[in-house]
Amino acid sequence: MAFHGSPFVAEIKNGRIEGKGKYTFPDGNVYVGFFKDSQFHGKGTIHFKNGGTYEADWVEGRAVQGFYTFKDGLEYEMEDWDYCTERDRRFYTERVRGFSHGAPQLTNDPAGPRKIPPNTYDTGDGYYCPDANRIYDYEGKMLREPDQDEANWIKR
Fold it and tell me: Which residue has the higher pLDDT, 73 or 112?
């Protein structure tokens, strides 16, 4: 379990990590919990550098039951997940705190949010201009004229 260059703080019994301890992965994420025979075993939590956590019950190094909590406190749910979906594309924090039209929004794009003209809506493949009722790519080339359903969905 102890990878080269990855420190851990735990009790060693017969050359193996046993009991409660802390293990730091090479990428900086940290597991805090119980070990048995140098494997995660029992209750334990991985603390990710991005602020999220994964709390789980572990058996011989494998999570058998657990849940992920995002940095903002939202718990991921396999069933009934309704954030950033086709029906409602808002992030959790946007639902909790709201947001203003034209203000910078959250993004899941590692490059950050794209620059779009004022009073337009980012559509993922470009931006929607409600005054013209057209969707343009990020360079300004017209892509399409949305029907009323799509325009309403974009403006939600």
Answer: 73
